[in-house]
Every structure is written in C-alpha cells, then in structure tokens.
Amino acid sequence: MDLQKTTDLIAAQGELIEKLRQEIHKVLVGQEKLVDRMLIALVSGGHILLEGVPGLAKTTAVRTLAQALGLQFQRISFTPDLLPADVIGTLIYSQKDGSFLPKMGPVFTNLLLADEINRAPAKVQSALLEAMQEQRVTLGDTTYDLPSPFLVLATQNPVEQKGTYPLPEAQVDRFMMKCIVDYPSRDDERRIMNRFSRPLKAEVTTVLDAGQIATLRSVLDQVYCDEKVGEYILDIVQATRRPGDFGMKELEHQIEMGASPRASLWLNIGARANAMLRGRAYATPQDVKEIAPDVLRHRIMLTYEAEAEEVGADQVVGTILGTIPVP
C-alpha cells in the first residue's frame, strides 16, 4: 500500500472535514468529543447511541450535522404508544384497483434521529433491527433498500426509568458506539449562555453531499492498520470474554458476557477513521485506545455482583486497556 498516496488523499479531504466541524460549532458549543464520534460514524457507516441527561444538546448536535451535510433528515420521537408501522411504514389498501401500496415510513432517509429511543416498546425498537444492520426494510412481501448513506443516531436518558424500555442486547450491539454526553465545562456553559441568551440564529450551510461522503469512505478503506495493531484489538476483545487468560482474574466475576465479534470489526474501522480525521494514513494503538470505551461499553454485560460493587462498564474497559500490553 502506498501510504504517501493515501496521505495525500486524506489531506485533500481534510479541508472539507474541517469546514464540517466549523459549521457544526456554529451551533454546538464545546462537545468536541461528541463531534469527533459523529464524524467517525459518518465516514465508517456505523450508528451511534447518545446517552445523557436532557439539555446537553444531543438532539441539536444531530440536527446540525444533518444541516451541514445537506442530506435527507427525519426525526422520530419515540413514545410508549408508537407502532412499528410508524417507523418503517406499512401497506395501504387502494380502493381504486384493490391492491396494497407501500407507505414508506420515516426510516427511509439518510440521517435518522431516534429521539429517546428507550421510551418505545421492544416491538418498535426491533423494527429498526433490519434497517440498521441490512439497510433495507421489508413491507409485506417486498424488500426495499434504504437511501445511501444511511445513519441512525439515537438518544436516550439514562436517569429517568419510568415509562422506559431498556434496549435489548441484539439491538444495542448494532450501534457502532455508545457515547456518554457529559455536562459542559464552566467556560463552555458561559459561552452557551452568552450565545443563546440573544435572539441570534446561526445559519448552517451545506459543506458535504452524498457523493463526497462516499469519497471519504473510499479513502478510509485505504487507511493502513498494521498486523500488530490488529492483534492488539483482538487481545482487548478476547480479554472481555476470558479476562483470566490475560492476568485479570478480578474481572471474571464481574463480566457476565464479553464483547461480540462486531467489537473487533468496529475497533478496526473506528481506529482507522480516527487516524484519518487526524490526517494520518495509518492507525496506531492510541487510536484504538481512544475509541475503545465507546465501542465496548455497551457490549459488555456485567454481573449482579459487579453492579452491587458499583463497578461500571467503563471501569472494566479501563482495567483491560491498562493491562493489555501496547505494541
């Protein structure tokens, strides 16, 4: 592989990525990590689950990204009375010719915001499964392809439990990353207060289109991941399943189920995307460590014993990353 040629391609796309960042930050104050993760998902073709208390601009971030991309955008507010047909669509009977015609749901879009996804019942959540994994939807006997690119960004509130339905493991595993959105710093909150206390509305302009996103993804395919970095990824994922084999006996009673093979796949792709966003044509172990918590935290099931000891998934991932030797 010609790393110099790939580096030149990445440099050529770097200006567009930087413009995209600037457009997002016209509205979004701070939250650099959140913006990075959304850009990684964009170039990787993965989906993101955003978790945080209300008022942290999760929905605003997704809406602003859609405006800067100029792609088709739909928002679904998940509620307990939502039906699967409200998400994927249904068949409508036509009295004119006695046939059933497809009525496409809001999932037929480029960028889908699933707002408060844990407020809808499991049947509605499962309606997204085929769409997220296969990028297609079946209505009746016919399967319809979704537009390309297709990206799901879902939000959920981790604090309020009344009227919510936890996402099943089969669905949460289909999200490339689960990002924890934290409170802004004092300086960022001062900027938020000063910016939005006046009736000024920032105009977000389109800087990328579907064709340019396809180009970014083709460049990502050329970013190099060394075999040693690949082995490092495999060690991390294997350690979530058999921590005792890697000298972490204390985690054996805390992990009920380790990460699936999707974790290895997304760690590889995400590390290369992280390198690409930083102008490099090759992934390093540091790229893996940066995105590992977001890729792994929702793929590790903890035991009741771990919950009783108030041990969280992030703490387990931190132990693994601190123990596995870095190549």
Structural features, described:
- This protein is of the alpha/beta class and 327 residues long.
- Helix content is 45%, strand content 16%.
- The protein has helices at 3-24, 32-44, 58-69, 85-88, 122-126, 129-134, 169-172, 186-196, 210-220, 227-241, 261-277, 285-296, 304-308, 313-323; strands spanning 48-51, 73-77, 89-94, 99-104, 111-115, 136-139, 142-145, 151-156, 177-180, 224-225, 255-257, 282-283, 301-302.
- The strands form five sheets. Strands 2-5-8-1-9 form a five-stranded parallel β-sheet. It has a two-stranded antiparallel sheet with strand order 3-4.
- The chain is globular and about 70 Å long.
- 37% of the residues are buried.
- The model has no long low-confidence stretch (mean pLDDT 83).
